């Protein structure tokens, strides 16, 4: 399991810088999940990918040094005022929140996205 966590301090900076950090982190691995360790839907999405044979990189925002800034940036990107987690990126591209990931899975479009990103080879 790859879980990315950080120290306990919180750094505040501009949302634009945090959006850039999200883009950078999302592009570094085939599947990236921005999550919170206490979020049951985050855990469910993580399990969905792992049960498909995917090893996602998970950023636990409640344990990440700039997690609050990243969470605000994700809310901005998604156009949401609520806590946006989980947020999934595949191949560096935004898939979305739980509803969007599940809709892709049900529609049969999730596996092709994962294959194109090199996350699975089936």
TrEMBL record:
Instruction: Supply the SUPFAM superfamilies for this chain.
Output: Thioredoxin-like (SSF52833)
Q: Which UniProt keywords apply?
A: Cytoplasm, Redox-active center
Q: Note the PROSITE patterns from the entry.
A: GLUTAREDOXIN_2 (PS51354)
Please tell me where this protein is predominantly located: cytoplasm
Subcellular location(s) of the protein: Cytoplasm
Q: What InterPro entries has UniProt attached to this entry? A: GlrX-like_pln_2 (IPR011905), Glutaredoxin (IPR002109), Thioredoxin-like_sf (IPR036249)
Q: Name one Pfam family in it.
A: Glutaredoxin
Any one GO CC term of this protein is: cytoplasm
Work out whether the entry's keyword set contains Cytoplasm: yes
For the Glutaredoxin domain, which residue ranges apply?
31-95
- Which superkingdom, per the lineage? Eukaryota
Q: Which family does it belong to?
A: Belongs to the glutaredoxin family. CC-type subfamily.
Which PANTHER family does the UniProt record give? GLUTAREDOXIN
Protein name, UniProt field: Thioredoxin superfamily protein
Upper classification of the organism: Eukaryota, Viridiplantae, Streptophyta, Embryophyta, Tracheophyta
């Amino acid at each position: 399991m790859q879980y990315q966590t950080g120290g306990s301090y919180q750094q505040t900076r501009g949302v634009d810088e945090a959006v850039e950090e999200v883009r950078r982190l999302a592009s570094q691995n085939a599947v990236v999940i921005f999550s919170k360790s206490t979020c049951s839907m985050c855990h469910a999405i993580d399990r969905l990918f792992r049960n498909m044979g995917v090893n996602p990189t998970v950023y636990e925002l409640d344990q990440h040094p700039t997690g609050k800034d990243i969470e605000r940036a994700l809310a901005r990107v998604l156009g949401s005022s609520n806590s946006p987690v989980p947020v999934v990126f595949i191949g560096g591209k935004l898939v979305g929140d739980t509803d969007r990931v599940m809709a892709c899975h049900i529609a049969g479009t999730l596996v092709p996205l994962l294959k194109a990103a090199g996350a699975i080879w089936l």
